Amino acid sequence: MPLEVPALVPPLVLIHGPETVLAEWALAHVLADVRASRPDAEILRLAALEAGPGELAMHASPSLFGEAKVIVIADADEAGEEVQAQLLAAIGAADDDLTLVVLHKGGNRGKRIVDALKGAKARVFEAAAVKSDRDKHDFAINEFRRASRKVTPEAVRALLEAVGSDLAELAAACKQLVDDTTGTIDEGVVATYHGGKVEATGFKVADAAIAGDAAEALRLLRHALSTGLDPVPIVAVLASQLRQLVRVGAAGHGRSADLARELGMAPWQVDRARRALSGWDGAALGRCIQAVAAADFDVKGGGRDPVYAVERAILTIAAARRGD
Question: Which of 301, 299, 320, 324 is nearest to 309 (CA)?
């Protein structure tokens, strides 16, 4: 999630984790704080994989005139033995005039650098992978909060369904809404900017099918396909929505927020699944999951007509909901 970066930057900073958006966010704010507190500091950027022999050691050596220097080392997890040795030496040499900012995507390679930085009391910013729907929901909420903007739960839900799972696209969409609008961001504002995507999204198709409305699901499907949406992600959404029904149904009673944390979902997803579960039983959900698995095989090259495969899955789901 977005990180609070203090204004005073210490000699050692570690940005650790594979999530590029969060790592870039943290680095940008660290450098902004450096420029604010020490505007004359020289900022150098080096890629660990491309650093030449002795290059890091040369840049890390004290300046003749005592100027402040910031060295940003990208991809420290890809550093060779020589660069790792130079980096370890630089960690020991960092002081008020030399700030070392190290980005490491995680994993065992270059782990001794991470251990050395943590052992030296570096300030650590975690850029952990954002995978679950709950993580993406929280990410969007925090993007708006960081910009001091109010956003409704319905707006966040609509934005996630419109933009999809790519975190960079979600961050860009949040920024666009912040920059281009005023006041509270609600579902209507999101629809203004992403209405076409929302109408064409596989989520709307899945909602209609799971509700048993075959006609509306097919209408939305054809509209989605006519706007260029591929059948593959539509089938993926159908599968995801059915799996959510199974997981929420099996989780039993409890507060939506508690179940959301347990299942890696957003609270509104738990609420939606609970509402959708009316009229469903385990056997019907099992048949639908099998039908969607067959459609997934067909749309990925196993069948002759991907569109027909999706339509057949939708009709199966809608019929199961109606008890046909």
Answer: 299
